[in-house]
């Protein structure tokens, strides 16, 4: 028996490797095979202009996964026309904070860091970005840039850190075919919240299988911020205080809005699944042709049209008229760890130039970040573009350091408020609003 | 003590003391890679975790000095703490009962060796080849109201109304995750218990049959007691794994809806990277979990340990 | 006649086990079929085809980069796990040495720490060791997470070997190491394969550890899969997700089927002593 085992070759092979490992054991604790290569070459090149430096430097960039398409378009266009090369890294949306936090601790942030515009104030407060106030102020088109993304990156001392990277706005969409069936004018969307309610109820009145009047992400704080805040702004009210520490979501217009949705729920005009909708699929029922009218992300309109829906697009109305929108998307800045600020700035300045905004951003069907360019050759035939043009000047971005915890995080006090007010009508808006303030102010 | 057992032919002339020391040295040589890895990649990071748990350490701002015991009190006062503990325990009980029960059932179904049973064994084991993340992604699609086949099926059965996500309700989310876990791990526990079953000598069953014991009596009187070591191992593994459940909930439910499926480890992640962005609190919760697990496992070992003195461990 | 009766009486058994088999296989089959089926919102909208797979192949740095990284990470993890746990398992099974129980318990304790917590400490610590952002570093970390199971497995595998076998080798004039190398390794082969397979499955599929410890071009496949799932405003490309799951799963399933016999034996050989 023993002899038999002794003859086996494979065992010997494995064992030889094992012996090698044994010999190495003493070294295992300090086995390092790669010296750190963090030293950068070009820091603060002399004679840096407002355009930054394009000298063949490699720049790293992080952005979150949902904006992968837009980010890739910009990076590809930049790399094709510049000596500098940007290496784009995509981070899962929900892990962005952890990844950025770890990198910040280790001093390993990428040169260019983009983040959801509602997260950026917290990052700025913690010093993740390089101060680029002078450079931003020196841009010839500074006043033309949609301001939300700059404001989000402005700290309490007025120092500016970020510029718009990708824009997303919220609009009202309706299904023209369903409107026709319900006897509504398919070319006219709601201009007040009351009209929104009656139109939704008219579509619900069709009693078609699987079709509902409206739909919303009842368990998705981010979706509701994006789609409901504009109605409150349009009515002339604020959602949070200027310094971002107090919630003002118990105004009369806010309460009217909640009650409208509560009425819609009670009349059965809200699609099944709204109450559970966590945001993963909140745009799907409309693009599936099963929803009459709802506030919607502009970036998802194209997909709905592609899916064969005849989409009507309009601005999100206020309580009694007026319009507004949520200027969402991502802002980008140069990180604190970047040693290539001039080169990184070259990308940022280029990304907002007329040529880039028109021939890269607008051409791909995305919303530009320069107000004067909203009307352009690519948006001429696009019905959504004129809406965007009209509404963006009224658009807003709320700024608060603890915004995501108060609104976007799962189980946030804002979600609690919405659920209480629109599903259960508990009349606890004031108390729930205080809970949001508590989270914002901590 | 083991000297008497040690092979001693070649070294018979050396004094026992030195021989023991030489043997210890050699043993350490073999164990040193393990020791090195455990020390470098486990002990040191865990020490760091303990240090963090005692420090004011926001995610983005870094270490701001010792603040003991603030993190611990903050964690326990956190509004999700007790719900998360409760849910984790509930999930652990459900998962353990189902997995061990089903594992045992499957093991008994495929115990004998026929071609069909071998095929069944492979079938039940196949899901264990998937990573938990892949499996969770797979079930995420399976459960989705857009592309998954389950929603229409449940709708037809009248269990749900309309095109809603199965993961949308607390009960739905819990049982969907349990189903995924049972699918992924039942085969593994079947294998563990199968090993135990095969270890029970046939004569014992023979004797029982001669005594006129029926199937149930045999199962209760012979199978279960003799299976005790395997059952203990499986239970400890399952309880530890379930108490630390993270990936499946992270991908399938994100702790939702309304935080109803928030496990303790999810909360650790949430505190560190989502809501509080506070590494100190997250570390404090981890330390609490670690200590709880040590106590729970010690208790389990005491209760479950059968006749053999055991090896003081588990896998 | 009686054979027929016996066959009939077994029918419920076959129905039951057959039903269970379908239940266990269905999710995987469904995913494989769906990944090539037409689905709205994916790259495969009309007819059957491999549109979703080309989405995956062309995603960002490209499938081959991710695949290459995954392979390096997995190989490092498997080699380290197998070597370390073999030597360690041998030491625990066959020797008495000071600190033995402490080391063994420490190794098992790895199972009890929520790994989500270790991510940031590991990030800081790996940087100190200049192992940050290296595939080897991630491979080592993943190997460590495998150590409790692997060490336990190898320990019981060695314990299951009759001492006489080892003694016979020692009589032949081998030291303990050549005894290990020439005799025992063959006897614990099933255990080795089980440990290696588990290490591979874990390393191949992990995305959280690489997410935190790797960046740039070093991301492995599962991380790319998770990224790909998320589109604008949380809308999900299920087609690409399913294709990704299939690409991730096929190597695992093949390896699993090939090694299955050894793997089952790995459990049988040691765990009798449970």
Protein architecture, described:
Residues 1-47 of chain A have low confidence and may be disordered. In chain A, strand 1, helix 3 (68-81) and strand 2 (85-91) form a beta-alpha-beta unit. In chain A, the strands form three sheets. A five-stranded mixed β-sheet of chain A has the order 2-1-3-10-4. Chain A has a three-stranded antiparallel β-sheet with strand order 6-5-7. Chain A has a two-stranded antiparallel ribbon with strand order 8-9. Chain A folds into two domains: 10-26 and 50-167 and 328-388, D-Maltodextrin-Binding Protein, domain 2; 169-326 and 398-440, Periplasmic binding protein-like II (D-Maltodextrin-Binding Protein, domain 2, 3-Layer(aba) Sandwich). By secondary structure, chain A is of the alpha+beta class. Chain A is built from 19 helices and ten strands. Chain A is globular. Chain A has helices spanning 2-6, 9-28, 68-81, 96-106, 120-125, 133-138, 148-152, 176-181, 193-204, 221-234, 252-266, 284-287, 301-306, 341-351, 354-362, 383-391, 403-408, 413-424, 429-441, and strands at 58-64, 85-91, 112-116, 162-168, 170-175, 293-297, 311-314, 316-317, 323-324, 328-334. Chain B has helices spanning 16-53, 70-77, 81-109, 115-125, 132-143, 150-156, 170-198, 202-210, 215-226, 228-243, 247-252, 264-274, 279-304. With 315 residues, chain B is mainly α. Chain B starts with 15 loop residues before the first helix and ends in an 11-residue tail after the last helix. The radius of gyration of chain B is 25 Å and the shape is flat. The longest helix of chain B has 38 residues, at 16-53. Chain C has 274 residues and is an all-alpha fold. Chain C folds into two domains: 2-35; 51-268, MetI-like (MetI-like fold, Orthogonal Bundle), CATH 1.10.3720.10. Chain C has helices spanning 2-9, 11-35, 51-57, 63-94, 100-109, 115-128, 135-160, 163-171, 176-187, 189-205, 208-213, 221-229, 238-271. Chain C starts with a helix and ends with a helix. The chains are: A alpha+beta (442), B mainly alpha (315), C mainly alpha (274). Chains in contact: A-B, A-C, B-C. Chains B and C meet through helix 1, helix 4, helix 5, helix 7 and helix 10 of B and helix 2, helix 4, helix 5, helix 6 and helix 7 of C.
């Amino acid at each position: 028996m023993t002899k038999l085992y002794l003859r086996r070759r494979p065992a010997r092979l494995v064992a030889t490797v094992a012996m090698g490992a044994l010999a190495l054991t003493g070294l295992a604790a300090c086995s390092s095979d790669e010296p750190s290569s963090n030293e950068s070459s070009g820091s603060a090149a002399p004679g840096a202009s407002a355009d930054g430096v394009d000298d063949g430097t490699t720049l790293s960039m992080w952005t979150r996964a949902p904006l992968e398409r837009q980010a890739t378009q910009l990076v590809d266009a930049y790399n094709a026309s510049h000596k500098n090369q940007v290496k784009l890294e995509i981070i899962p949306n929900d892990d962005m904070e952890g990844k950025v936090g770890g990198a910040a601790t280790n001093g390993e942030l990428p040169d260019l860091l983009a983040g959801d515009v509602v997260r950026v104030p917290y990052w700025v407060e913690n010093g993740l970005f390089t101060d680029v106030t002078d450079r931003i102020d020196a841009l010839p088109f500074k006043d033309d840039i949609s301001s939300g993304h700059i404001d989000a990156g402005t700290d309490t001392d007025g120092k500016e850190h970020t510029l718009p990277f990708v824009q997303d706005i919220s609009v009202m969409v309706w299904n023209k075919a369903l409107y026709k069936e319900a006897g509504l004018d398919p070319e006219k969307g709601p201009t007040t919240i009351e009209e929104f309610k009656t139109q939704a109820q008219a579509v619900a009145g069709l009693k078609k299988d699987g079709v509902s009047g409206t739909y919303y992400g009842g368990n998705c704080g981010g979706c509701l911020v994006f789609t409901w805040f504009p109605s409150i702004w349009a009515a002339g009210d604020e959602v949070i205080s200027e310094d971002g520490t107090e919630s003002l979501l118990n105004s009369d217009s806010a309460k009217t809005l909640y009650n409208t949705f509560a009425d819609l729920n009670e009349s059965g005009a809200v699609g099944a699944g709204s109450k559970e909708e966590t945001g993963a699929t909140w745009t799907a029922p409309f693009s599936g042709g099963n929803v009459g009218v709802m506030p919607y992300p502009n970036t998802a309109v194209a997909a709905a049209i592609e899916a064969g829906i005849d989409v009507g697009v309009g601005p999100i109305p206020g309580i009694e008229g007026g319009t507004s929108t949520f200027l969402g998307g991502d802002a980008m800045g140069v990180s604190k760890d970047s040693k290539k600020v001039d080169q990184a700035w070259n990308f940022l300045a280029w990304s907002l130039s007329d040529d880039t905004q028109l021939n890269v951003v607008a051409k791909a069907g995305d919303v530009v970040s320069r107000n004067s360019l909203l009307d352009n050759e690519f948006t001429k035939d696009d019905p959504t573009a004129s809406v965007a043009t009209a509404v963006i000047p009224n658009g807003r971005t709320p700024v608060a350091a603890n915004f995501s915890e108060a609104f976007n995080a799962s189980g946030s006090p804002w979600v609690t408020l919405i659920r209480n007010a629109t599903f259960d009508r508990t009349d606890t808006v004031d108390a729930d609003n205080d809970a949001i303030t508590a989270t914002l102010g901590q | 003590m083991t000297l008497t057992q040690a092979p001693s032919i070649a070294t018979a002339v050396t004094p026992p003391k030195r021989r023991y020391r030489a043997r210890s040295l050699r043993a350490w040589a073999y164990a040193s890679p393990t020791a090195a890895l455990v020390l470098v990649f486990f002990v040191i990071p865990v020490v760091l975790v303990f240090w963090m748990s005692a420090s004011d350490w926001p995610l983005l701002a870094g270490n701001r000095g010792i603040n003991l015991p603030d993190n611990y009190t903050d964690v326990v006062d956190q509004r999700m703490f007790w719900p998360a503990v409760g849910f984790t325990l509930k999930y652990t009980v459900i998962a353990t009962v189902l997995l061990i029960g089903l594992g045992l059932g499957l093991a008994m179904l495929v115990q004998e060796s026929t071609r069909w049973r071998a095929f069944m064994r492979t079938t039940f084991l196949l899901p264990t080849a998937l990573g938990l993340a892949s499996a969770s992604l797979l079930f995420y699609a399976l459960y989705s109201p857009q592309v998954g086949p389950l929603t229409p099926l449940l709708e037809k059965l009248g269990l749900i109304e309309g095109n809603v996500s199965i993961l949308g309700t607390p009960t739905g989310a819990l049982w969907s995750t349990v189903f995924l876990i049972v699918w992924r791990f039942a085969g593994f526990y079947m294998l563990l218990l199968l090993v135990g079953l095969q270890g029970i000598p046939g004569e014992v069953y023979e004797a029982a049959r001669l005594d006129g014991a029926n199937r149930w009596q045999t199962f209760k009187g012979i199978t279960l007691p003799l299976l005790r070591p395997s059952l203990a191992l499986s239970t400890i593994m399952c309880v530890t794994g379930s108490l630390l459940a993270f990936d499946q909930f992270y991908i399938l439910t994100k702790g939702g809806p309304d935080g109803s499926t928030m496990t303790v480890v999810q909360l650790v992640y949430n505190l560190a990277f989502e809501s509080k962005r506070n590494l100190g609190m997250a570390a404090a919760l981890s330390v609490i979990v670690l200590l709880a697990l040590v106590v729970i496992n010690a208790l389990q070992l005491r209760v479950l340990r059968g006749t053999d003195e055991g090896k003081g461990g588990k896998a | 006649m009686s054979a027929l009766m016996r066959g009939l009486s077994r029918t419920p058994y076959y129905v039951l086990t057959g039903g269970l088999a379908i239940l266990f296989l269905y999710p995987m089959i469904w995913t494989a079929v769906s990944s090539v089926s037409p689905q709205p919102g994916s790259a495969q909208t009309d007819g059957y085809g491999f549109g979703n797979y080309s989405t995956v192949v062309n995603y960002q740095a490209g499938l081959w980069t991710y695949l290459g990284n995954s392979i390096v990470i997995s190989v490092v993890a498997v080699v380290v796990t197998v070597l370390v746990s073999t030597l360690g398992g041998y030491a625990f099974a066959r020797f008495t040495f000071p600190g033995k129980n402490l080391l063994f318990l420490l190794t098992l304790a790895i199972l009890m720490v929520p790994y989500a917590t270790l991510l940031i400490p590991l990030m800081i610590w790996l940087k100190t060791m200049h192992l940050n952002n290296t595939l080897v570093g991630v491979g080592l970390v993943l190997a460590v997470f495998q150590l409790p199971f692997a060490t336990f497995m190898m320990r019981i595998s060695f314990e299951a070997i009759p001492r006489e076998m080892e003694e016979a080798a020692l009589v032949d004039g081998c030291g303990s190491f050549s005894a290990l190398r020439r005799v025992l390794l063959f006897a614990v082969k099933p255990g080795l394969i089980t440990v290696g397979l588990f290490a591979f499955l874990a390393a191949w599929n992990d995305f959280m550890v690489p997410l935190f410890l790797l960046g740039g071009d070093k991301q492995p496949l599962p991380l790319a899969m998770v990224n790909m799932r998320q589109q604008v405003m949380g809308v999900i490309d299920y087609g690409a997700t399913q294709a990704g799951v299939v690409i991730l799963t096929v190597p695992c399933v093949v390896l699993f089927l090939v090694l299955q016999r050894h793997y089952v034996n790995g459990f049988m050989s040691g765990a009798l002593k449970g």
